[in-house]
């Protein structure tokens, strides 16, 4: 995309099936994003370059997903002033995902990562859009329409159950 405002990164291509939900909801809301693989452990130099350069390239929010010893969100947060949203990914060799959750959630004071639920990259995308909407009235309208669509679905379900 020409002018990405959200950077979606993940520790491995194997995280993509989970992280795709963030991309999909950003697309639905009309938010430009970029998406790539950055591994804290396998490509530390790439992680440094990405995190240090993101703000200068116009990125406003970073969504970082990783599984296992999921150090990517926290390390990226340590390298940039941008808000970082962490997505714990339940990888194939994980201990029910608790490894991913705790290694993203338990950040030291001073370096926050906004951690969403296990595999919940859709909420990460929505949260990124909500952060951007504080300075974007058009995006506010799209978010309100999105929330209205959720409400309508629940109301439709309630009506169906009456029948
Ligand atoms: C983490 O290890 C990745 O974020 C992924 O969730 C997990 C497994 O990676 P692969 O071995 O599938 O590349 O770094």
Automatic annotation (TrEMBL):
Organism: Mucilaginibacter gracilis
Gene it is expressed from: purE
PANTHER family xref list: PHOSPHORIBOSYLAMINOIMIDAZOLE CARBOXYLASE, PHOSPHORIBOSYLAMINOIMIDAZOLE CARBOXYLASE CATALYTIC SUBUNIT
Claim: Isomerase is one of the keywords in the record: yes
Residue numbers binding substrate: 12, 15, 42
HAMAP family: PurE_classI
E.C. numbers: 5.4.99.18
SMART domains: AIRC (SM01001)
Membrane-spanning parts: none
InterPro entries the UniProt entry points to: PurE_ClassI (IPR033747), PurE_dom (IPR000031), PurE_prokaryotes (IPR024694)
Annotated ranges, domain PurE: 4-154
Reaction equations catalysed: 5-carboxyamino-1-(5-phospho-D-ribosyl)imidazole + H(+) = 5-amino-1-(5-phospho-D-ribosyl)imidazole-4-carboxylate
Protein name, per record: N5-carboxyaminoimidazole ribonucleotide mutase
SUPFAM superfamilies: N5-CAIR mutase (phosphoribosylaminoimidazole carboxylase, PurE)
Pathway recorded for this protein: Purine metabolism; IMP biosynthesis via de novo pathway; 5-amino-1-(5-phospho-D-ribosyl)imidazole-4-carboxylate from 5-amino-1-(5-phospho-D-ribosyl)imidazole (N5-CAIR route): step 2/2
Pfam families attached to this UniProt entry: AIRC
Main enzyme class: isomerase
Source species, domain of life: Bacteria
Function: Catalyzes the conversion of N5-carboxyaminoimidazole ribonucleotide (N5-CAIR) to 4-carboxy-5-aminoimidazole ribonucleotide (CAIR).
GO molecular function: 5-(carboxyamino)imidazole ribonucleotide mutase activity
Protein's GO biological process: 'de novo' IMP biosynthetic process
């Amino acid at each position: 995309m020409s002018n990405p405002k959200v950077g979606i990164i993940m520790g491995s291509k194997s995280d993509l099936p989970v992280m795709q939900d963030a991309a999909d909801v950003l697309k639905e809301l009309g938010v430009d994003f970029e998406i790539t693989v950055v591994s804290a452990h396998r490509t530390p130099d790439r992680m440094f370059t990405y995190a240090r350069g993101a703000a200068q390239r116009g990125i406003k929010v970073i969504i970082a997903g990783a599984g296992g010893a999921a150090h990517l969100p926290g390390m990226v947060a340590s390298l940039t002033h941008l808000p970082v949203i962490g997505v714990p990914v339940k990888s194939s060799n994980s201990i029910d995902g608790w490894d991913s959750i705790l290694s993203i959630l338990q950040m030291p004071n001073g370096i926050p990562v906004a951690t969403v639920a296990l595999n919940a990259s859709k909420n990460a995308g929505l949260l990124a859009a909500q952060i951007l909407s504080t300075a974007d009235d058009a995006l506010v309208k799209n978010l309100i329409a999105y929330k209205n669509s959720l409400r309508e679905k629940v109301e439709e379900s309630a009506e169906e159950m009456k029948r």
